[in-house]
Amino acid sequence: MSDARLIALDWGSTRLRAFLLGADGAVLATRQSEQGASTLSGADAFAAALAAVVAEWPALPMLACGMVGSQHGWREAPYAPCPADAGALARDALQIDVRFWIVPGLMHDAGQPDVMRGEETQIVGALALHPELSEQACLVLPGTHSKWARISAGRVTDFATHMTGELYAVLRQHSVLARLMPADAVAAPSSQGFLAGVDAARQDGALGHQLFAVRTLGLFKRLPAEQLPDYLSGLLIGHEIANELKAGPPERLALVGDPALCERYALALGRFGIQAPLQLDNTAPAGLWRLAQTMGL
Amino acid sequence: MSDARLIALDWGSTRLRAFLLGADGAVLATRQSEQGASTLSGADAFAAALAAVVAEWPALPMLACGMVGSQHGWREAPYAPCPADAGALARDALQIDVRFWIVPGLMHDAGQPDVMRGEETQIVGALALHPELSEQACLVLPGTHSKWARISAGRVTDFATHMTGELYAVLRQHSVLARLMPADAVAAPSSQGFLAGVDAARQDGALGHQLFAVRTLGLFKRLPAEQLPDYLSGLLIGHEIANELKAGPPERLALVGDPALCERYALALGRFGIQAPLQLDNTAPAGLWRLAQTMGL
């Protein structure tokens, strides 16, 4: 523990993950709690959740990213405007007390504003771990609200959010499409159903129209019921990718996030001619380490 | 009552509407029940619901359209394939007993099948009431699952379903977009918020991306909370229209269905250069009358 230098906190809506980092940014220990930002209300509740998760660790500088800095979080951290690099994010960090800071979110405003919170830190981490991405790259962070970030000369120049994961969840659970599907999650995801959905999305139809095919393909038994959730997933992910690649494939593309979900995106990207993109698991600790260094913590 | 000739039944998922029709198809009386097809299970339950609603009327031939003929309805009526006219629908009607028939649904199969049940009868009614639509027209039937039907020489040549109304409902109630909106329905719909959504849709972005703007416009207070539901509605309806008008505006376009919803579509269509389209309220009774005549009932 004497080697420990920083407590890095990846504090999202549903979960708090804490990392004890050593002198070179290496993860020495991790702790996890279900006290995500959406489960807490008021500064005292946040402070107690933090104290509980780091109780056994030494008193070190702490840096947090994610929804902990949102309007309904501990305290609202600002959004840094695009283009932004690690230096800009470090400058806008919000100090909560003598040894605790929250990383700002990132905003891109092209008429209609777009925002991220937490992903900006994962991006910093990805660029720290893979400097070759800094020059020119497209980083894709799949999830409830997927982010497509364009990188140029070490800065995030712009990004777009797609509500892909959330659309899947609400349609899977609450729409007429759910009726023909198995109620529970399917044990073995069907890459056949998934790729059929991706291929449909590549045909450039309206999403609101193509979604109805999830129903009719089930109705006419052209797809078995257990493949319908994967078809829906492929359709939504395919639409996201088709739209982001309209201007042509980027020179470098990397996927950042949950390995199973990244694998799904990699499979879909293959249908668009992008083979075996770089895949990175949670890069938030690396990002928090890099930002802490930039801040001089 | 001695003038009565037919009992016409518009029997959807959530409601049963019965019309007593005179010699010229005029509506002599109406009855309504909440016993929609989705609330009933088994032929006996359907038979009882029907008996209750027509109890005070004379024993006449009865013709029904809608979800009563679906897989989970009274009995499954077939889907007539496109192209189809009133004659084809009449031929495929399903006889339930000596004086009760169910109109078939309509299917269009261009790789991925599309279906309607009930709207085919509204279309027949619209063409009966407005023969000038028979030659060449686009009929739009807005709703939970909006239908865009192309008419040529008196036949439905093809059609497409858009899940616009259902997307609105699930996103309004179950998604992150709901959080910044008033919980209840807004008393006075905002045409300003609605048209801002329509205009955003006209910019040809991805729906899954543009939906996130409903959140950020609320977050940055660029739209008041009470306008956000209308913005969402405009975005979804705008995407539907933009997609269907890709090949250019049709020579004739008519809106068929709930007057308030048709008014909303007419407002949105105006932004696409289509002014004051013909609007028709429920044309199912006229359609059932025309089909009954064709069947010789």
Keywords:
homodimer; alpha/beta; Nucleotidyltransferase, domain 5; 2 domains; six-stranded mixed beta sheet; five-stranded mixed beta sheet; 35% helix
Describe the structure.
2 copies of one chain form a homodimer. With 297 residues, the first copy, chain A, is α/β, with parallel strands linked by helices. Chain A folds into 2 domains: 4-132 and 284-295, 2-Layer Sandwich (Nucleotidyltransferase, domain 5), CATH 3.30.420.300; 164-280, 2-keto-3-deoxy-galactonokinase, C-terminal domain (Nucleotidyltransferase, domain 5, 2-Layer Sandwich). Chain A has helices spanning 43-53, 86-91, 119-129, 164-174, 191-201, 207-219, 228-244, 259-271, 284-295, and strands at residues 4-11, 16-22, 27-33, 62-65, 79-81, 94-97, 100-102, 105-110, 112-116, 136-141, 146-152, 155-162, 253-256, 278-280. In chain A, the strands form 3 sheets. A 6-stranded mixed beta sheet of chain A has the order 3-2-1-4-7-6, covered by helices on one side. In chain A, strands 12-11-10-13-14 form a 5-stranded mixed beta sheet. In chain A, a hairpin with a 4-residue loop joins strand 2 and strand 3 (27-33). In chain A, 49% of the residues are buried.
